[in-house]
Structure of Phosphohistidine phosphatase SixA:
Amino acid sequence: MKLWILRHGEAEAHARSDDQRNLTEHGRKQVLRSAAHLIGQPLDAIVASPYVRAQQTAALVHEALGFGQPVETVPWLTPDSDPDQAIARLDALGLEHVLLVSHQPLVSTLLGLLVHGNRQSGDPMGTASLAQLRGEALLKGLMTLESLRHP
């Protein structure tokens, strides 16, 4: 299994609510730089948080890759989602090559759980950072971090 975890690009500092924050122009550029690393990768799905900035990030990647399937929007990829539940839900999808588009602190916590087996060891992920993980299965502590790119 290959899993890519992408944090959304830079977003506006303020909006009516956190889930309504839009990407900035700089954030859009960051996302496109990260998307370039996904060109030619075998993706089965792009799965994204429902928050506006994650949806915009996923749409930019979708377009840049010319991905043939719609982005899957799920409620279990928001900033405060339970990482154990996110792993279980992702595993239930039964896919081999998935791109997740989400937020801090969830993205770093997922890295810590999947690579090191704990919540505290996740690598920092700035806006539009892209992590690539590989493993036999989606199991805590048993995936390998192949790369972590920051735009």
